Amino acid sequence: MRKDSRLSRVLHVLVHLDAFKAPVTSDTMAEMLSTNPVVVRRTMALLRDKGYVESVKGHSGGWSLSKPLNEITLLDVHNALGSSSVFTIGLTDEYTSCPIEKAVNAALGDVMTEAEALMLERFGEITLDMLGGLDR
Question: Which GO terms describe its cellular component (predicted)?
């Protein structure tokens, strides 16, 4: 099963953006993340739409924060990315008439719902300036 590391990668970039004194290009961020600049632009556009970053076109253009790190939470970023679930585990739906599958799905579903709610609550308490022991 493949892990979705988009949240952690975007958090990494946002904290780095705070350290730069000038806008950072998609190419530079793509190099930092070992990905394609188009992927960076699409992802950053989601954050721009929510007001966390801004972009400037042109020779000295690029991406920069539009809010300080202490005003952005992990939950903000998670929601901006449109992530539907924090878990990559899923319930099976191949044998919907099987009573055992129904029981397993009910038990797992309840636990995952409860765990996700707790995790998202905690995400809302952590601002980006708290990451990596940064003192800002």
Answer: cytosol
